[in-house]
Each structure stands twice: as structure tokens, then as C-alpha cells.
Amino acid sequence: MYLKKTVQLLLVVLVLSVSVGCSQGEPESAWKMINSGALLVDVRSPGEFNQGHLPDAKLIPVGDVESRIAEFGDDKNRPIVVYCKAGVRAAKAINVLKEHGYTNVLNGGGYSDLMASRP
Q1: What CATH number does residue 14 fall under?
Q2: How many distinct structural domains can be found in the chain?
Q3: Fewer beta carbons under 10 A from the terminal one: N or C of the chain?
Q4: Taking the model in full, what pTM does it have?
Q5: Cα separation values, 112 from 18, 72, 87, 119, Å
Q6: Where in the sequence numbering do the catalytic residues fall?
Q7: In 24-104, which ranges are continuous DSSP H helix?
Q8: What is the pLDDT of residue 54?
């Protein structure tokens, strides 16, 4: 019984740590990539995008990343910055991109965080 509870607790801690890690973006690194010409992709909903988005951001809602993979281009090393509201959907989109072989992708985090850290 003790072992079972310990394993369950460890699983909860693992899931929470992965979730928290995935939701944290890197706004400062994102701006460096954006200013160097990275593809900037907003994976929020069209409604969220219409309420405000970063200049030159391309809207590809997270649920559409797989079906619109061609829009990310053939260069699998192309710098790509993905953002959403808090970074969680961006992390999901990055997982899809990595499954398709993209290697230079960064979670920019949330729109508000990016705006607040804009150089």
C-alpha cells in the first residue's frame, strides 16, 4: 500500500513538473530570434489573435498545426518562434513540429509576456 501511494505521488509530481516546464516560455530568447528573422507563429484561436497579436505573426491555431505543417516550410532548421496565451499551447505545437523534424523551434511563451519584454 505504501509503495503504491509513493508511486502515485511521484507520478503526480512528474506530471506537474512537465506541465509547468512546458508552460514556461522564453520571451527574451524569442525576441532575439524574432529580430533575426524567425518565423513567428501564434497558435491561439482566431478570436484571441484578433484581439491583439505580434506584428508579422502568422496565425495557425494549435489544433491546425499538423494539417498545416507545409506552411512552416521545407527548411527543418529554420528558426521558428511559437507563442500563445501562456505557453502551454505553444509547447503542444512545438511537439508536433519536432515530430515532423523541425529542430530550431522555441516556445516564446505568452503574448502578454512577449509584449512586456519587447525590446
Answers
A1: 3.40.250.10
A2: 1
A3: N
A4: 0.80
A5: 22, 24, 11, 14
A6: 84
A7: 27-35, 46-51, 88-99
A8: 97
